[in-house]
Structure formats: C-alpha cells, structure tokens
Design goal:
OB fold (Dihydrolipoamide Acetyltransferase, E2P); 7-stranded mixed sheet; 259 residues; alpha+beta
Length: 259
Amino acid sequence: MSGVSRRFVLILACALWPLAAAHAAPADEPGRVAAIVDGDTLLLVDGRRVRLVGIDAPRAPLGLARDMAWRQADAAKAALAALAQGRAVTLRYGGAPLDRYGRALAQVYRDDGLWLQGEMLVRGLARVHSFADNRALVPEMLALEDAARKARRGLWRDPFYAVRRPEEAGRYIDSFQLVEGVIVEVAKVKGQVFLNFSPDWHTAFTAHVPRDALALFKASGLDPLALKGARVRLRGWLRYDRRPMIDVTHPEQIERLDE
C-alpha cells in the first residue's frame, strides 16, 4: 500500500471512529437498587430509573389510579422486590440505552450473577416484549417464557393473560397480547407485508410488517412472504385500522410453532 493510500485509510478511520463510537453499546454499569417501581422497573440509589428491557410485567395501564388493583401486578412487584431490593446490580446494554422517558433500558444482573429478566420469566410473572432497537437475548427469554407457560406458573394460570385466537383479537384492542393461529394468506402491498389469518382480510385479524422492517427479516433468514400456511405465535400491541392488527417490526415477534 502506498503512503498516500495509508494516509487516506487513516484519515477515513479517524473520521468514522466517532460515528461508530456513537452507536456502540455503553459499557456495563454498576448500581444499587433503592426501590421497586413495578414488576419490571427499578429505581437506583443514584436516581436512575431502570426498565428491565425485553419483558413486560403486569401493571395497571396509564391513566388508572395508582392504587387500583391490577391482576398479578402486586405479585410481580413483590417478586422483584424480593429479588432486587437493596442489592448491587450490573446494567448490561444490548440496544438503545434509554427510552423516551429517560429510563435506562438494560439487562440487569444481581451481584451474585442472577439475571433478573430471566428469573421473572421463569416465575411466570412477565411476558417477553421486545423492540426492533432492543433485541438482545430475546430467544433465551422466549424459551424461559414458553417453559413457564407450559408449567402454568404465575400469570399463565390467569385467563386474563391467555394466548388469544385470531378471531377474538378484536376484543383486546389497545393492549399487549399474544395471538396464535395459522396464516392463511400473505400479501405484499406497496412494499408492506400483511399476514392474514382469515380469507376475509378486510375485517379479520392481520399482522402488518412495515417496509422498513423487511431488512431485519432478511438478515434473520425469516421471510414473511414464505409464511403462508405456517402456524405462528405473534406478540405485540393490538390496534385497530379497519381490522384488528399487530405491527411486526422485528422477526422475534413471530414464533413458528410448526417447526
């Protein structure tokens, strides 16, 4: 390599290093738990709020009174308190480090190595809820959730948290749900993919894969266009847009049940 080429490579590397550093995951951070906010949120002694990224524990929806009872919420909060109150912890990042509320989004490990997300899933006191910008350890979490569901531990004994059928999805709009069924038709419309669970695609439940999510699917090896006839479990926020719908922004939201 010539001297000019070497200088060019060095200049390019120096120019790109700040950009790469900006996107690198933060280093592990220590902390100590001062209080438990709910079944998946901690308050550290230094004032940081930490969301146990990747799981969703039972809690009352926003807008309800704080003292209003919510099914399994007290059990989840009490379990996390028993596990973490006053303990030294390590925050480990694998995606976006903060949410829009300024909470740290981390996998949290107790001073003895216990993985808090994993333990809450093992006890059946949380469900896996991942995001496109935070996908670390999702396969491991899904396996723990599946074992707890099969053993009917915690919230999996409660019909309120049952896995839904596609035909009943419309009853649970504006909530986080798991839906199991067979994809009967797949359609690509203007770059978006729709996974339809009924021939009546105008009104029946569907999963919507946005155009900008397809790159993640391609990288994972899961082709949504090849899912016709597959039995799957979907998870996500149910909304209504002329029909009940879940937006699928990353592959981990789809579990194939026929493999």
